[in-house]
Specification:
alpha+beta, Elongation Factor Tu (Ef-tu), domain 3, OB fold (Dihydrolipoamide Acetyltransferase, E2P), 3 domains, six-stranded antiparallel β-barrel, 6 helices, 12 strands, 41% helix, 22% strand
Length: 363
């Protein structure tokens, strides 16, 4: 057998009439081919209908339950700064540590402030003594006026008796002149005593504890006591301390922030919804929130407010869309959702990413 014979291709089988045999597909009639095409077309129609139905269902659900993952956890952050200037004596809490309301955070050396309280107390005592002395001067002036008025009354009475006698010559004129001079002197003494009383009253002012000298001294004492109290900086609420920069021995300046306190009593999520979602979102509606840092937990909450302006409007440089190349961009508006109390809130941290969904079907 030669090489050409060894590699010769087998010839197609022939039927009894000598014609080549055909495959089953070739022997299938036109009806079978049309049936296959109809099945494929029906399947495509069903798939398209299912896709449209799924899209409509999703659109309806999205309209009733708008959702966004542009949301972030928030809480009250208290920026703690001393109200007096002094040297830090004690730091009662460390960075990122939990504290209770009233716990000591920082204490400033109170020595100089205690001295100021002592000085203010001494000043108040001196003010009271001075007011007492002025009150005594008023009382003495009153007594002197009473004496002078009595002398005047006697002089007036004597002149009323002697005057007519001098006029008809019964009493010598010299005696009448003497009595008249005594009357003038008594009147002058009474006037001087009245002036002295007015001066004493003016120097005293209001009597008792309402006297301005005492009130000023009390105010100074209260200010000194308040400054002394401000040397102790306590936690204003339950929370977690942020990064604290104060150390014993450092100078604390009044009004300069030393630490932040994140309150843990009230948590919320600021969810930035598209403006197309806002038509159905109203305060009071329920919401569900999932937070990335707490996987597997869904928090419940309530919408408490919707921002009156877009987030971009609160930026340092709001957008100015007056140019010719303006492109419309869908704006987002912050919606605040207060989270309901839950033990899982202890795991939250301010600024954490979240996903919020609002149930608008019930509202």
């Amino acid at each position: 057998m030669d090489t050409q014979t060894a590699f010769r291709q087998p010839e197609k089988a022939h039927d009894a009439g000598g014609e080549p045999a055909r495959s089953p597909a070739e022997t299938a009639g036109p009806g079978r081919r049309k049936h296959g095409t109809a099945v494929k077309l029906a399947g495509a129609v069903l798939l398209a209908a299912a896709a449209i139905a799924a899209y409509l269902a999703w659109s309806h659900y999205a309209a009733l339950y708008p959702s966004t993952n542009d949301a972030y956890v928030g809480a009250h952050v208290v920026h703690v700064a001393p109200e007096v200037t002094g040297t830090v004596e004690t730091v009662g809490a460390g960075s990122f540590s939990p504290v209770k309301k009233g716990d000591l955070l920082v204490r400033i050396d109170p020595a100089s402030f205690s001295n100021a309280v002592d000085a203010a107390q001494a000043n108040l005592a001196q003010a009271r003594q001075k007011v007492q002395m002025l009150q005594s001067a008023v009382n003495e002036a009153k007594a002197q006026l009473a004496v002078k008025k009595a002398v005047l009354a006697d002089a007036q009475s004597a002149w009323d008796r002697i005057g007519p006698l001098v006029a008809d010559g019964t009493v010598p004129k010299a005696q009448g002149d003497t009595q008249k001079a005594a009357l003038r002197e008594a009147k002058a003494g009474a006037n001087a005593a009245a002036s002295a009383l007015e001066t004493a009253r003016a120097q005293l002012g209001v009597s008792g504890e309402k006297n301005p000298l005492i009130l000023a001294a009390k105010a100074q004492l209260e200010a000194a006591e308040l400054n002394l109290a401000h040397t102790k900086i306590a936690a204003p609420a339950d929370g977690i301390v942020g990064k604290i920069s104060a150390r014993p021995g450092t100078l604390a300046a009044s009004g300069v922030e030393m630490l932040q306190l994140i309150e843990t009593g009230d948590w919320w999520v600021d969810a930035n919804f598209k403006e197309s979602n806002l038509s159905r979102i109203k305060p009071g509606q329920k919401a569900s929130v999932s937070v990335d840092m707490v996987p597997g937990v869904t928090f419940s909450g309530t919408v408490i407010s919707v921002s009156p302006a877009s987030g971009a409007s609160f930026s340092l440089f709001p957008p100015e869309n007056a140019t010719g190349n303006w492109v419309k961009v869908t704006q987002r508006f912050p919606v605040r959702i207060r989270l309901d109390p839950s033990p899982d809130l202890a795991a939250l941290r301010v600024g954490g990413s979240a996903t919020a969904t609002v149930d608008t079907a019930g509202g």
